Amino acid sequence: QVELVESGGDSVQAGGSLSLSCAASGSIFSVIAMGWYRQAPGKQRELVAAITSGGSRNYADSVKGRFTISGGNGKNTVYLQMNSLKPEDTAVYYCNARLYSDQPTWGDYWGQGTQVTVSS
């Protein structure tokens, strides 16, 4: 029984900034990684950024230098600082946690999504 809750989505002008937050709670034995995905209408859900329990970070090429992911340890929280936002960043952003719960294998858990809209 694991729950992820995101917050921070909003509507902003191009060039603006937003910060997203996600907290995972419930029956968590250990976390492998946490991250952020996004999905625009008519497109596949894509990885934006991820951080492992050891602190390694990965970013999509389209957001490198603009977005920063942090957290992923302790209280099982993860953040995404988004700067220099572009209209192409408009999407629903989903928090993801890959973790061991009360089952012998890991599973992926997802938040409900938060809308980010960037206008010109």
Structural account:
- The chain is mainly beta and 120 residues long.
- The chain has strands at 2-7, 11-13, 18-26, 30-39, 46-52, 57-59, 67-71, 77-82, 91-100, 107-110, 114-119.
- Strands 2, 4, 5, 6, 9, 10 and 11 form a 7-stranded mixed beta sheet that branches.
- The chain is elongated, with a radius of gyration of 14 Å.
- The chain starts with a strand and ends with a strand.
- The model has no long low-confidence stretch (mean pLDDT 95).
Low-confidence stretches: none
Structural class: mainly beta
How can the largest sheet be summarized?
Answer: 7 strands, mixed
Question: How is the quaternary structure best described?
Answer: single chain
Q: What proportion of the residues form beta strands (DSSP E)?
A: over 45%
How big is the Rg?
14 Å
**Helicity, as a percent range:** under 10%
Q: What's the rounded overall pLDDT mean? A: 95
Order of helices and strands: EEEEEEEEEEE
Distance between the termini: 41 Å
How many helices?
A: 0
**What would you call the shape?**
elongated
Concise synopsis of the structure shown:
With 120 residues, the protein is an all-beta fold. It has strands spanning 2-7, 11-13, 18-26, 30-39, 46-52, 57-59, 67-71, 77-82, 91-100, 107-110, 114-119.
Structural descriptors:
single chain; 120 residues; mainly beta; 7-stranded mixed β-sheet; 4-stranded antiparallel β-sheet; 0% helix
Task: Lay out the secondary structure.
Blueprint: E1 2-7, E2 11-13, E3 18-26, E4 30-39, E5 46-52, E6 57-59, E7 67-71, E8 77-82, E9 91-100, E10 107-110, E11 114-119
Parallel strand pairs: 2-11
Antiparallel strand pairs: 1-3, 3-8, 4-5, 4-9, 5-6, 7-8, 9-10, 9-11
